[in-house]
Write a structure and sequence with these properties.
252 residues; alpha/beta; Ribosomal Protein L25, Chain P; Alpha/beta knot; eight-stranded parallel sheet; elongated
């Protein structure tokens, strides 16, 4: 019996595009993305490329008009529906480049809906290259099969974040000085949520009290060991996904 080829081909490259996708939509690809498809992946005419735009699911697109620096991709059929994203934000202080890049990459893989940088007093970094962080989010989504790209917020000061915080969203606060055990806290606070994680030096006392005083804040403990900022951010996200997010079958 002749084997039926997989559809879409399992070896098909995967690419994020800003163009809204749909049946019959054609997308022109140039720049680095075109170089990747043409020179690295050796895409030829009629080859399939998997596309996603962050909101329309994943689409199989057929390549045509391949030139040195650009090509066209024609959407053929939808291969995945739009992704259902847990209503979870990760709010983290900026840290050194390699580590904040790691947070962005893994937060995308873990399924966060929004990554929100927060400027704090003890942060050793006061500026972020949001274009670079966005690139890391895109690359992670391309590689791990996500069809939704996490929203990346502009960096805001902590006091501004607290002042404008939505009243219907729990703000779990990873407080190294102690709080409710995380499993207990998440079990009793369901619904839209976020974690706020401090910088390498932690929050200063004034910031800590300001967060604790906020009506939406829930101070939690991440266990008996002191965690680096990036470890705390990813551990908190994973625990929330396991208890209240789409890792928990009861929440599906």
């Amino acid at each position: 019996m002749t084997a039926i080829p997989a559809w879409p081909p399992q070896s098909a490259p995967r690419l994020y595009v800003a163009t809204a996708l749909g049946e019959g939509v054609s997308v022109q690809v140039d720049g680095n993305a075109a170089h990747y498809l043409i020179s690295v992946m050796r895409v030829k005419a009629d080859d399939i490329v998997l596309l996603f735009d962050g909101r329309s699911g994943e689409w199989a697109a057929r390549a045509r008009d391949i030139r040195k620096r650009d090509l066209m991709l024609d959407c053929v059929s939808q291969t995945k529906p739009p992704e259902t994203v847990p209503d979870f934000w990760l709010c983290c202080a900026p840290i050194r480049k390699g580590r904040i890049d790691l947070i962005a990459e893994k937060a995308c893989e873990l399924g966060v809906a929004k990554l929100q940088p927060v400027l704090t007093r003890r942060a050793v970094v006061d500026k972020l290259n949001l274009d670079r962080l966005h690139t890391h989010l895109v690359e992670a989504a391309e590689q791990c099969g996500r069809t939704a790209l996490p929203e990346l917020g502009e960096m805001v000061k902590l006091d501004v974040l607290l002042r404008n915080w939505p009243a219907d969203r729990h703000l779990f606060f990873a407080d190294e000085t102690g709080g409710v055990p995380i499993g207990q806290a998440l079990g009793s606070h369901r619904g839209p949520a976020a974690f706020v994680i401090g910088p390498e030096g932690g929050f200063d006392p004034i910031e800590r009290e300001a967060i604790r005083a906020h009506p939406c804040a829930v101070p939690v403990s991440l266990g008996p060991r002191i965690l680096r900022a990036e470890t705390a951010a990813l551990a908190a996200t994973a625990i929330w996904m396991g208890l209240n997010g789409d890792w928990n079958e009861d929440e599906l």
